[in-house]
Design brief:
- The structure is a homotetramer.
- By secondary structure, the first copy, chain A, is of the alpha/beta class.
- Chain A folds into 2 domains: about 250 residues, 3-Layer(aba) Sandwich (Rossmann fold); about 50 residues.
- Helix content of chain A is about 40%, strand content about 20%.
- In chain A, α3 packs across α12.
- The longest helix of chain A is centred in the C-terminal third of the chain and has 20 residues.
- Chains A and B meet through α9, α10, α11, β9 and α12 of A and α9, α10, α11, β9 and α12 of B.
Chain lengths: ~325, ~325, ~325, ~325
């Protein structure tokens, strides 16, 4: 399980259930599904240590919106998704926020598939400086919002967590929202799924390395993480296609055949290493992505930015936001 | 064979030999290999209809330079590759050229992995306008060179071949050099291999659709095609990993086992469709690429541009070119 | 007059009248003005050789839309301007077009203030290839449209006019529309004014060098030129500010004073050279522009693209275009 | 004086001396000039309150390298300037640094003429994370270096000074180097002059607003500021050309003439407002820049990054840096 990389709690759950037994829910996990006119909303809640272990993710709520064709630019779908995203963010954040909201755009703006966070930041209605400069002219319905794209370790030489903590210590926001590009396991979730979580985010992923996480523990304020899978790890994809062949063998030769047992006996780690062997001659991280990734990033960052804009400012419409931003 | 997509004649040959019998050469094909201090130069020459059929590519010479680590930016390797590329281009073009040389940068500049052609064009020493404006000041060692990035069908609505023929009819070059991003089958050839061919190029690939090819037939002048594989087709990669499992089964269960026969009985088309099933929920072309593709394109376009610059102008050094271009 | 650079017929007329006598119209020129709810539409028609000489531009119609704040992104203004632009294009093109319409995006995409043409091309509804590939599925209200961004002389080594003529000879369009970034004389016209002309366009400007013009004469089909001034020439701006001082002197010292006569005696050429002296130590073309030029180009190219989209396709709304383009 | 905007201490001094008396040095200011084979090095040292008042800049050293043609890409000149820049930085920083050096890239990466800081950051040899991850493999000659591009107020809603102080508090560097695009008064200094100062930098300029300055006072560590003028303010340029006419009047009519007295009687503020009147109809900041600004920024950021790389790491050559960065 550890070997197939996904940032979606939804997929961690699918993998767990696929491996063990399809019917029952993962222990320590509560799930609620809702279909909103073709958009599937799944709310996965990890409620215990057992659930944390099973899914490899910390306790908390993980909501996904699965929107087939999201990246294709239908304007009606776009408006609905902005509204749904705004609604789900508001569900996760209880009370109205008194202090500023700080939005962090994670990722490397020079690597297209990783540029979602920095691109989203640039489309936000940022107001904190206006509340300081012209407080009398600011409408009550507006929230104080500020933003930061801290860059990535390879360019800054500083852990993202350190930069964010330095800024949080100084400006003392009441809430942090972190935006990031994610990796999915399933190709059809790429660029079509939005995950919102109240557990923060770990640049580098996994439960370990928590010192660098952006979370309530490290920052002292609630942290909402919002992301879209923009790539599928190439090794993961290869792994999954091998699984299909194993399934075909099972159908033909039967689950009792020696060959099927041999294939199944190959544990996850062996399988992963077999496949890595094909891919590793290449130096650099291999990902499966779509050729249209450049234009898809523009669209997805607009969806995230406006979902956040509508969530944090009161009674503001998409049209008003687009007027404001010009 | 038709189902694994590669633009490299080298790989078409590998696949042919893998499927039939490893030892003998492909009929109608002549091959010559040379190791130049760690850089493998392979010259595949298709000399008959039989060779065309076997490799699915038109008669002519296909030279590959395989340069491990080419995309990583070692300056000494970079200088050697520019020189080797220049030498191989000069081998393919017999006599010195009297008229202009027209370099075509194929591909979509807004899709990073497809932007190699347009990016290369921008780094060329273009001189044709200077020969017209200030002929007295032009050095004899310089060649008249011009360039065009015609764009892609989805943006222009015009077949690339039509645009190029229109321009060729008007400026009547003595040679056309076409630069394009290619697809490889093997991951380790991505961003590390350069192919030079004297057969022209077919935007869209394959032997058919020859009306739109850029070739001596359609343009009336020799056409050299130069490309670097920047992606591996995701279906191809999945296909190849399945092959690994089949090999593992063969080793364990023996080539005579029923299950191995079943797996082998699955013909290429069935296998391809099985795998396509996993990938097709996603709308858009899926490719395996490296996260660093943006910076890799900058480096590779510089290598191609300077290889061409050194090939077409006489007695000019890399340093002089870099001075000239500033 | 020759020394203040403007691409707007409107400004050539203003300068002529300023220099000679304010009241009367320029001989050989007919002018019609219309205020459409804050947008000033001026239609300058040069009808004779005398008019050509006076304004330094060829006979034909030049329409300007002056839209204060156009570059600031008010969505209602944006919609109105797209509609007005579409209406004025349709006024200039008499009959419905049977063949394809070819849209040329002039300028250098790597120089922000010059990228208006190439950026506009990318936002067009291009359909010519669809009429060839899937004619049965094409709606009657759609026009066959194709596009080309030919690049600039310094990068291609080929005169833009040659490239365009080569392509026009091959695809034989019924109409050419050329899009370009222009230079204005007055700062307040920068990024706020659209000029539409039926006289074609001359990459490099002026009446001379007509061999390279894109016009009915050189291409054999009607040519509509559409542009927005994105820069003001720095020398022009300096020149105009000096004029202000001269006016101040006149007011104080009187028009009969020796000093005023001296200043006025300084002819245009002397004045221009005096000012050029201050600016010429810098190698390269100096322009006055706005710091926001990058984002302004995105907005202006969208206005031009959609004005053209609405003009060439029948009964299509802005919303339908935005759905189509995604 | 206040009305002509320049960030160069060199030009503040020129303006002061021009207005008062050419011969004597500005009180409280010490100047040293050196010609290094065509590159003019001027070291302006403001040593007292009187000097601060006269030049409108805080006490400290301001060194300029004036390099005609710097932006044109001659590789030999490029190497010399990197070395000179490195030498001057080392002159300003006394002792070897024990802690990390933090380099701040100021400015807006989406506004080409303002992108110098962020672009420079991306070309640095950043090592701080390597000293933490693989201390055993780090060479003694290397310095721990980290970097940050904090963005601009309009996008983040946070004063740049606040972000930097937050990060400085956390990582406690021993030295801060701030990189920024500047404004010059004279056109021929644009893109050809580098200023290095040990007084820090004030995003927003001027002596006031010191709360937001990046300086030893606010950050508690030495701050070196390095910048290149990339624009000339349009109002400044207009103002200067008017000065030329006044000079011409003086020559013709004599310094005693009534008209010359009238012109000179017009105080700086009146003149500035007269000129602003011509330019202000346009909303947005107007600057004079070169059309080639996009490619010039690439070259200048490379010069600054490598000057800094050579200054902070010991015994490292330009060639080694370029190998390292690839």
């Amino acid at each position: 399980m550890v070997y197939s990389r996904t940032d979606l709690a939804l997929e961690s759950r699918e993998m767990y259930r696929h491996n063990i037994e399809e019917k029952s829910e993962v222990p320590g996990v509560e799930v609620n599904e809702e279909d909103s006119d073709g958009i599937l909303i799944t709310r996965v809640k990890i409620v215990s240590k057992e659930g944390e272990q099973a899914l490899g993710k910390p306790c908390g709520s993980y909501i996904t919106l699965e929107v087939p064709g999201l990246h294709q630019g239908d304007p009606h779908k776009y408006q609905r998704v902005c509204q749904l995203l705004s609604d789900e963010i508001r569900r996760l954040v209880d009370a109205p926020q008194k202090g500023s909201i700080l939005v962090i755009g994670l990722g490397n703006r020079n690597v297209t598939a990783d540029s979602l966070g920095p691109k989203t930041i640039e489309k936000l209605m940022v107001t904190r400086h206006l509340f300081e400069q012209i407080p009398d002219q600011m409408d009550d319905s507006l929230q104080s919002v500020c933003a930061l794209a801290p860059g990535v370790l390879g360019i800054t030489g500083i852990e993202t967590g350190e930069i964010v903590r330095g800024v949080v210590d100084r400006i003392k926001p009441s809430l942090v929202i972190a935006i990031d590009a994610l990796a999915a396991r399933r190709i059809d979730r790429m660029n079509t799924t939005i995950q919102i979580a109240d557990t923060g985010i770990n640049p580098g992923s996994g439960v370990g390395n928590s010192r660098q996480a952006l979370s309530r523990d490290t920052l002292g304020v609630p942290v909402i993480a919002i992301g879209v899978p923009t790539v599928v790890d190439a090794v993961t994809m290869a792994n999954d296609t091998v699984g299909l062949v194993v399934d075909a063998v099972k159908e033909q030769a039967g689950a009792d055949s020696a060959i099927f047992k041999m294939l199944c006996g190959m544990n996850e780690q062996d399988k992963y290493q077999l496949i890595s062997g094909v891919l590793t001659p290449y130096v650099g991280e291999l990902t499966v992505t779509t050729k249209q990734v450049d234009s898809v990033m523009d669209k997805m960052s607009k969806v995230l930015a406006n979902g956040v804009n509508m969530a944090v400012h009161d009674d503001i419409t998409l049209e008003e936001i687009e007027n404001y931003l010009g």
